[in-house]
């Protein structure tokens, strides 16, 4: 090995999340041995995305179209808006295909430690979308972290007078979760939100 | 998400060894958010390899040059030849940079079950290299599997009359290995090959 091109490819791949130097080398070898069925298709797929890459002006999603496929999907309920921290969260919410509305990506979370204030997030565009009318419910789907909760409370306050109902995701025992492995915070929340057995 | 280009890229990446559908999506997102510093360099690295990809006519290594960088390296000892099953094994041996000689890739191992006979492996070219003279020792570095051992014994027999010394890798406790986690076969081999404490 040790050809400079192969080393460079190994390094480029090893910077992807989930791939270390060792698995990157394995991936390179996989590609080298499958020029037609793996290497060329991967190059083509990357180029197709690179050429069309765009950030949605409406919601902040990353897509190959602007506005993105979610914002332009006519089957989605325009009255429902789900606010998330990052594009990854939007994809995670959308993967389950359970949320029938549209999204808004903040681009982060409020963080005193990292010096992230309201002006650094896509909050003004969010307020503009809500104030433009047509939205009835805003679901605040921040991560269940301290900073996520801070961001959620800040947004709930800003949205209080907009005439929309503001909701948050339920906390509780994750599906498949075992009590023995859960932290006390989650158990406390699940207990507080307990409901009659149907 | 759900743009066809992004889905295609996700699928192409998820076919790499070590990346499942979930980590492929994370990798895609990583690339999309870093168009200039990750996506474009990865495309360039893949293209550079794709354009120059070659299988070495001498040893069977995959490289961007033919003959490959290992075969043309003047610092390597031409009298020493290490025979391996796959290109991955060559890279693994070469990673440690402890073997100062050259290599020969068989392209597999003898396997009655999979119907792989001597004619399916790069054995004739190996014999030709050895018979051409100049090689003094052939190290048979097959994997320590049943099929690797079969292949090794077959090659040792073929090489017996060539006037070269034929050696194999030592078996034993791997460095950092704990006896409690080793199989009996390895412990038996390590015990059989025990030597005085220096």
SSE order and pairing:
The structure is a homodimer of 198-residue chains.
Chain A lengths: L3 H11 L6 H12 L2 H18 L1 E2 L6 E2 L13 E8 L2 H9 L5 E5 L17 H9 L5 E4 L5 H14 L5 E4 L15 H9 L6
Family (chains A, B): Belongs to the RecR family.
GO molecular function, one term (chains A, B): DNA binding
Protein name (chains A, B): Recombination protein RecR
Q: Keywords for this structure?
A:
homodimer; 198 residues; alpha/beta; two-stranded antiparallel ribbon
Integer average pLDDT of chain A? 90
Q: What oligomeric state best describes the polypeptide chains here?
A: homodimer
Count, helices of chain A: 7
* CATH architecture descriptor of the largest domain in chain A: 3-Layer(aba) Sandwich
DSSP, total strands of chain A? 6
Number of domains of chain A: 2
Largest sheet data of chain A: 4 strands, parallel
CA-atom Rg of chain A in angstroms: 21 Å
Distance between the termini of chain A: 63 Å
Find the CATH topology of the largest domain in chain A: Dna Topoisomerase Vi A Subunit, Chain: A, domain 2
- Any idea of the CATH class of the largest domain in chain A? Alpha Beta
Q: If strands are numbered along the chain, what order do they take across the biggest sheet of chain A?
A: 4-3-5-6
Structural class designation of chain A: alpha/beta
Give the overall shape of chain A, derived from the CA principal axes.
globular
Low-confidence stretches of chain A: none
Order of SSEs of chain A: HHHEEEHEHEHEH
Strand content of chain A: 5-15%
Q: What is the share of helical residues of chain A?
A: 40-55%
Task: Please give the most extensive interface between any two protein chains, plus how many residues each contributes.
Answer: A-B, 54 and 54 residues
């Amino acid at each position: 090995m040790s050809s400079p091109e192969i080393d460079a490819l190994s390094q480029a791949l090893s910077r992807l999340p989930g791939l270390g130097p060792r698995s990157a080398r394995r991936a390179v070898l996989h590609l080298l041995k499958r020029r037609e069925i793996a290497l060329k298709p991967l190059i083509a797929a990357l180029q197709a995305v690179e050429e069309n890459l765009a950030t949605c002006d409406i919601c902040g999603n990353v897509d190959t179209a602007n506005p993105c496929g979610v914002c332009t999907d006519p089957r989605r309920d325009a009255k429902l808006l789900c606010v998330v921290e990052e594009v990854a969260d939007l994809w995670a919410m959308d993967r389950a295909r359970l949320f029938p509305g549209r999204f808004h990506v903040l681009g982060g979370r409020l963080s005193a430690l990292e010096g992230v204030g309201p002006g650094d997030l896509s909050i003004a565009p969010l307020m503009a979308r809500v104030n433009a009318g047509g939205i009835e419910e805003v679901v605040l789907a921040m991560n269940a972290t301290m900073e996520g909760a801070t961001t959620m409370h800040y947004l709930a306050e800003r949205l209080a007078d907009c005439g929309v109902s503001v909701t948050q995701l339920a906390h509780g025992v994750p599906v498949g979760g075992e009590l023995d492995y859960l932290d006390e915070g989650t158990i406390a929340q699940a207990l507080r939100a307990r409901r009659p057995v149907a």
